[in-house]
Write a structure and sequence with these properties.
alpha/beta, binds iron/sulfur cluster, three-stranded mixed beta sheet, nine-stranded mixed beta sheet, 11 helices, disordered C terminus
């Protein structure tokens, strides 16, 4: 396996005002991501960075000017890791995410961190010092072979172990079941495994667009040929029946576990020790489209 191309870069600011509905600011201490997920939605970033290398093979390590007046982020939602993984393996060396957290410590910012790593355990105490911090781990399979086919993050077992440690430490955790691969991702089994370690389960279906659509469809044809007709139906003909059926099944399943199953939820207003809420995010593409029309 080739080593990624690492470049250290200077930037004025690492915190960007965000249009995402889930946060006020997005923060990405790196450009690129060496977890190299085959389905990475963030690979569009290549267009804006001048990189021509394949996604996952390069990483720009950002060095920014000192954050002036961190208190201005008091009470604001900062999403760390919208287009990179802030705990990619190189963070162990460069510690840019740790530097960011250290600069923001005491500011009162509300952090939301997304990762596929357990390197974040290193910063547990730092993260715990922020009010209402939340950490999410992407887990879209319990099958380590499929995981290895899809990404270079740490094993699912390690992600679940890290989630449990954060949860036991009183930090809100999310099991982000994303992207759900039709007939491959066993959503119910993941919910059963994670439900005692998290405050929120977030479900997002696989969307295929851009460069990676063909990569995924070719992978399915090669490794799961019996699923090719289903994937063609969903991703070439736009048939939504699979998601509607899964939605119905999950509604029944979560009811049997006495978990709330909702489209949108403010989990922060729920007690920490309440059972996790399962949030269905299947239809966000349609929601985004109608929002654009509006
Ligand atoms: S961890 Fe996230 S940002 Fe990194 S390659 Fe995977 S999906 Fe993309």
């Amino acid at each position: 396996m080739c080593s990624p191309i690492i470049t250290e870069t200077e930037t004025k600011s690492v915190i960007t005002k965000s249009n995402l509905p889930v946060c006020d600011y997005s923060v990405n201490p790196y450009t690129g991501c060496t977890h190299a997920c085959k389905y990475c939605y963030a690979s569009f970033m290549k267009r804006f960075t001048g990189h021509t290398e394949p996604w996952g093979t390069f990483l720009d390590v950002k060095h920014w000017d000192p954050i002036k007046n961190p208190q201005k982020y008091n009470g604001k939602e900062l999403f760390i890791g919208s287009v990179t993984d802030p705990y990619n393996p190189q963070e162990k060396t460069f510690e840019r995410t740790k530097a960011l957290l250290t600069e923001l410590k005491g500011s009162g910012a509300k952090l939301s961190i997304a990762t596929k790593s357990d390197l974040i355990l290193r910063d547990l105490d730092l993260i715990k010092s922020f009010p209402d911090a939340r950490v999410s781990w992407s887990i879209n399979t319990l099958d380590e072979n499929f995981k290895n086919d899809m990404d270079k993050g740490v094993s699912i077992e390690r992600r679940l172990a890290a989630m449990e440690i954060f949860h036991n430490a009183g930090i809100r955790t999310t099991c982000f079941i994303s992207p759900i691969f039709p007939e491959i991702t066993d959503v119910k089994a993941i919910i059963n495994t994670a439900k005692d370690k998290c405050n929120l389960v977030w479900l997002e279906n696989l969307n295929l667009r851009g460069d990676y659509k063909n990569v995924i469809l070719e992978y399915i044809t090669e490794k799961y040929p019996h699923l090719t007709p289903l994937y063609d139906e969903i991703y070439k003909k736009g048939n939504q029946c699979y998601w509607q059926r899964l939605d119905g099944e999950l509604c029944e399943f979560t009811k049997s576990l006495e978990l709330d199953y909702v489209i949108n939820d403010d989990t922060m207003s729920r007690p920490f020790d309440a059972p996790p809420v399962v949030v269905n995010y299947f239809y966000h593409e349609q929601i985004k489209k109608s929002a654009r029309k509006d």
